[in-house]
Amino acid sequence: TGDRGSLWTQLGHRLALETGRSVVFINGGVTSSTYRDWTLHSTGYFERLQFAVKDAASVGLSVNLVIWHQGESDAKRTADTATFQAEIDSLLRRMRAHLTLGSIRPILLFETSLCSGGKRRRPNGPLREAQRLAAESTTGVRIAMDTDNLGMRERYDDCHFNARGRTVIVDRLAELILPLVKGVASAP
Q1: In whole angstroms, what is the distance from residue 104 CA to residue 152 CA?
Q2: Residue range 40-91, pLDDT digits in tens
Q3: What is the largest CA-CA distance in the chain?
Q4: Residues 171, 25, 72, 77: is their CA dihedral positive or negative?
Q5: For tag attachment on the chain, is the N or C end more exposed, with fewer CB atoms within 10 Å?
Q6: Is 1 helix (H, G, I), strand (E, B) or coil?
Q7: From CA 18, how far away is CA 88, in angstroms rounded?
Q8: What are the DSSP calls for 142-178, one per residue?
Q9: Region of poorest pLDDT, from 35-39, 44-48, 68-72, 97-101
């Protein structure tokens, strides 16, 4: 929802160039949402994403990979690791059950917690630990990268990534994704 560029567009171009195939993203992002928001039926966030996936399937597209970048809004909460992990695990179960991911498709989960809204804080330890534990304990889920390691040279404020930050993330994601999609057939 911002206006300073999207790393997903840059990633799509990179993947298309390197694979010679079209790349389609189903964007479900909701600004300032938390893991918990995605597990509550009352927000409608997950259901909206589920509808988008079904709509894509109706024109012959399928989900080959999920990239989930979440945590900056969660970091402002004071929950413990177990609470965060339960929310992340619940979301991962919903993804597997409702986004046509029954057959294991990779889910790339970011380790991320920095976004202080003008006052830089330390990374949220319990949240980061929950993200790591969720990836370690769930088949097909892995940490894409730790974006908390990106500093002010890669951000235009205390949260959002600038062109340099986007490039760092795109390079890392391309490194992870390209081997995963090599065997994926193109849509007719």
Answers
A1: 36
A2: 999 999 999 999 999 998 998 888 889 999 888 888 888 999 999 999 999 9
A3: 49
A4: negative
A5: C
A6: coil
A7: 32
A8: EEEEEGGG--GGGBSSSSSB-HHHHHHHHHHHHHHHH
A9: 97-101
